[in-house]
Design brief:
Largest sheet: 6 strands, mixed
Number of domains: 1
CATH topology: Beta Polymerase, domain 2
Number of strands: 6
Radius of gyration: 17 Å
Order of helices and strands: EHEEHEEEHHHH
Helix content: 40-55%
Distance between the termini: 38 Å
Shape: globular
Number of helices: 6
Structural class: alpha+beta
CATH superfamily: Beta Polymerase, domain 2
Length: 188
Amino acid sequence: MRKSSSARRPDATAVELVGGTEPLELELHSYDERWVGLYLDHRRRILNALGAANVGVEHIGSSSVPGLAAKPIIDIVVTVEDITAEEDYLDPLLVAGYELRAREPGHRLVRTPTRDVHVHVYEQGDPAVLEYLLLRDWLRSNTDDRALYESTKRSLLRSRWNDMNSYADAETDVILAIKARARAASVS
């Protein structure tokens, strides 16, 4: 990534949720092999927007796990050298057609206007990225936890959620338990 012409600025100190909370209807879809192609299309779009920048791009979330039912949203994580140098990554992503949804300490979220692709931006080395990859890789290889996660999601979706963040908070305990098993398996 090119060096920002300005000195390193302080990062966001609070959550800025552009547009406020959004009531929405969520539903799970059976795994769709087209999700991989959608991810690859957006990966190219992101890399083209960011040029020769030193970035990482990974498919994360339920749509990245073959066989797992998911909300039809492609989640992507992008790692950048300096999260505070928004002119290096945020401006180009906005020009490429993504919209800013959230700015919070260490994290930015942009998405498509149709809300079917969410791009999470973190600084390289951020532990949150390793957590996403840990969960993804474990669910790809562990059928029992993949089934547990899917059944949890189905159970939660029987309720109405005022915002995607509330739904995500509700599945946290199961995700933490699954990641604990993944960590334990990696050291044994």
